[in-house]
């Protein structure tokens, strides 16, 4: 008698993010060609692929900047494909961008606090002094400690180093207490030492969250991701654990090449 192996915890739990046959065309040009993907709760999942493969477009579809031509996107059991970006954010998904997106004239502390205030429900209230909000202060201080910028809390964000600005943007991304975070090339433009520090930071801030990231640095990807999906010309050609992706002949041919043996 054949006994079916017991499903893993991730297989028994509904996906934190579920894509089903997502397609996106710009005019007559198809860019995303039927992507289906489950990202498990608590997973660190990387999307890799050649330039022009559709990675940024896919992120834009998930985060609501673009509407899909067809298909469904489900976040923690709720369909989000027709929602605006701010509505998706309020349902528990936050995203960083390739280009650093901060308020350069505000202090590091104020950048984080802006995101914290909305997540705590304070919104726009001109008669309440924000410095007296204990819960906002405590969460802001906790995030500054996580991203290792406590000593830079009063510095204008615009004077930070590039690596510090990327860390600040990650802090802003998690400040809203999102359950699912999307990081778009978080180590782009960094030295090897800076990228190693960024990986350590991402490990800390993604604990207890679901992470989906686009990244070109294969050292970062294979060091950080639990699973990897390879997106080539708008289609996912493989999804697997890093060791099997590294050995996958189709992936080597399409993207990794000799880097698979590095």
Describe the overall structure.
The protein has 262 residues and is of the alpha/beta class. The chain has a domain at 13-91 and 215-252: P-loop containing nucleotide triphosphate hydrolases (Rossmann fold, 3-Layer(aba) Sandwich), CATH 3.40.50.300. The protein has helices at 9-12, 55-63, 85-90, 108-119, 134-146, 162-175, 192-205, 218-224, 242-247, 249-256; strands spanning 17-26, 29-39, 44-48, 70-75, 78-79, 93-95, 180-184, 210-214, 227-232, 235-240. The strands form two sheets. Strands 6-7-8-3-9-10 form a six-stranded mixed beta sheet, with helices on both faces. The longest helix is centred in the middle third of the chain and has 14 residues, at 162-175. It is globular and about 55 Å long. The model is unreliable at 1-5 and 258-262 (pLDDT under 50).
């Amino acid at each position: 008698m054949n006994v079916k192996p017991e499903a893993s915890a991730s297989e028994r739990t509904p996906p934190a993010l579920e894509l089903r046959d997502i397609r996106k065309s710009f005019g007559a040009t198809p860019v995303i060609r039927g992507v289906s993907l489950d990202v498990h709760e608590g997973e660190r999942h990387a999307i890799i692929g050649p330039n022009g493969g559709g990675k940024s477009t896919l992120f834009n579809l998930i985060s609501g900047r673009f509407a899909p031509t067809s298909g469904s996107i489900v976040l923690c059991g709720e369909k989000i494909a027709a929602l605006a970006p701010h509505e998706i954010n309020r349902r528990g998904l936050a995203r960083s961008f390739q280009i650093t997106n901060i308020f350069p004239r505000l202090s590091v502390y104020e950048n984080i606090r802006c995101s914290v205030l909305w997540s705590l429900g304070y919104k726009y209230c001109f008669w309440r002094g924000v410095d007296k909000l204990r819960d906002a202060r405590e969460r802001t201080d906790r995030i500054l400690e996580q991203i290792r910028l406590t000593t830079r809390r009063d510095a204008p964000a615009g004077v930070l180093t590039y690596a510090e600005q990327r860390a600040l943007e990650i802090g802003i991304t998690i400040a809203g207490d999102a359950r699912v975070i999307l990081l778009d090339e978080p180590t782009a433009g960094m030295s090897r030492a800076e990228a190693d520090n960024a990986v350590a930071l991402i490990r800390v801030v993604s604990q207890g969250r679901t992470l989906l990231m686009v990244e070109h640095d294969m050292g970062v990807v294979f060091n950080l991701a639990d699973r990897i999906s390879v997106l080539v010309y708008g289609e996912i050609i493989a999804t697997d654990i890093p060791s099997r992706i590294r050995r996958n002949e189709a992936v080597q041919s399409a993207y990794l090449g000799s880097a698979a043996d590095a």
